[in-house]
Amino acid sequence: MSPRGEMRVWLAQRATAAVLAVCVTVHLVTLIVAVHGGLSAAAILGRTRGSPGWMTFYAVFVVCAAIHAPLGLRTIAAEWLSWRGRAADAACTAFGIVVLVLGFRAVAAVTL
Questions:
Q1: Cα separation of 103 and 96, whole Å?
Q2: Structural domains of the chain, count
Q3: Cα–Cα distance between 28 and 26 in angstroms, integer?
Q4: Can you give the residue range of the structural domain that contains 44?
């Protein structure tokens, strides 16, 4: 990959990390507050169903995870396994697609 391409990968990794940090914090704080407030899992799901806000929030969460995780795996594969090139990129891309598909299934289950 060209230096410019590597710079884009680096920027995407860092940008998605920043968004994920916010998403994880919001997710955990919301769950902790809800549970301490006496809500059950069923009650929490009852509040997320049909909510465009929560659907958008979790969709952003999933997209960022589907970008961030494969890029991290690509770096680990290169550094630890010396696995580089098209095969490594294809494997990491396939992993990202799996994360995306499964993540959107989870978003649908929680919000639709």
A1: 10
A2: 1
A3: 6
A4: 3-111
Is this model's pTM higher than 0.70 or not? yes
CB 71 within 8 A of CB 9: yes
Contact 68, 16 (CB under 8 A): yes
| Residue 17 CB neighbour total at 10 angstroms | 14
* pLDDT tens per residue across span 79-111: 999 999 999 999 999 999 999 999 999 999 999
Using the 8-state DSSP alphabet, how is residue 98 labeled? Answer: H
- Of 72, 51, 65, the closest CA to residue 100 belongs to 65
Other Cβ atoms less than 10 A from the Cβ of 79: the count is 10
C-beta of residue 72 within 8 angstroms of C-beta of residue 13: yes
